[in-house]
Amino acid sequence: MKESELYIRLGISGEDELGKILGFEAKYCEQNTYFKILRKKPIVSRLVGAKSQGWRTMLDGGIPNSKSPNLNLTMKLPKGNPQKINGQNFFHQGHILAKEFYNFIPNKDEAYRKIKNNSKNGFIQFSVANMQQSKKNEVFRYSQAYYENRVAKYLTDTGNKVIYEVRIYFYNKNDKIPIGTRILFEAEDKSLENELCNDIFIPNFDEDFDLSRIQGYLGRKSYREFYAYGYDERYKKCFKNIAMIDNGDSFSRTFDENHNQIFYCVQENKKIKPGLFLTCKDVYETYPLEPEDMIIESYTKEELFSKYEHRKYCYYPAKKEKSNFSAIFFDWPTVDRLSGFSMRGLKKQGTLEGAFKQLSW
């Protein structure tokens, strides 16, 4: 998104006003939709009424991993919170200090007290600003999770320590929703700082939440009202690229607003193997993880066939009979290991098209 449009979406007048909120000048990186904080140029004249809140803590990669307690927040999300095509709802219960850092904080009581705290560590965050989707093209957003995941990987790989600070910023202290998140860190060596800018601001907005659809739209002023007062019913027409679920067939399917069927590809991580699904609900019923702990890509059929056309895979179509949905996996052990899935009456396929035909997709 162009810088001038982004300021409108945040409800602020421009570069100078953002600097007065952050306390520093910032340089916009359009390709990845974030700002680099220029700490050598502090701004003395701050915006009256603006506020920030957050944490500064030491993260230690040398601490042995322990089982994390339930660190999910229980904040009330807006009633109008439809599912996007990418599988996520528009609004998330955002953590200021990520729950992924629990194992890197030496004092577990302190870690729990900081992370599982609705008022001090929770905020309403657009999902695209919170969790990272994988890179499908050259222009994609760096989310809060993009940085958190790389800091966590550095800690795990090196066993080093990182001084980590994260803050959310409000245009006004009485606002319901912050305009973004600042992350800054200092590592024991420079390898992490060479890979990542170590002081950045991630704007809290979604390009698919378009207030120009409301009657009486006033540009920046309309967005300013949204951050000040939060979501209400008049915004329900402002969501774009919503997932349309069709339950009329023998199983559910997902379509976009242009009536293209959408398929979901779950990416492999340390806890799960990849798979293809017809709806995100099917994904969440299959894998015992929170949605924010998975990367899910969305594709039309044409995009999916193009992606796998020249790849040498075997495809394992399977059905979860009691739940009445199906999926395609890339190896037999995954099918065998997942509860309730069976290939009864189905055969391994050498092409994705063949697997689709087996399941009548």
CATH architecture of the largest domain: 3-Layer(aba) Sandwich
CATH topology of the largest domain: Extracellular Endonuclease, Chain A
Q: Mean of residue pLDDT?
A: 92
Question: What composes the largest sheet?
Answer: 8 strands, antiparallel
The percent of residues in helical segments reads: 25-40%
Q: CATH class of the largest domain, anyone?
A: Alpha Beta
Q: Please, could you describe this protein's structure?
A:
This protein is of the alpha+beta class and 361 residues long. It has two domains: 3-235, 3-Layer(aba) Sandwich (Extracellular Endonuclease, Chain A); 245-359, no CATH class. 25% of the residues lie in helices and 25% in strands. The protein has twelve helices and 16 strands. The strands form three sheets. Strands 9, 10, 11, 12, 13, 14, 15 and 16 form an eight-stranded antiparallel beta sheet that branches. Strands 1-2-8-7-6-3 form a six-stranded antiparallel beta sheet. The longest helix is centred in the middle third of the chain and has 15 residues, at 144-158. It is globular. The relative contact order is 0.12. The mean pLDDT is 92.
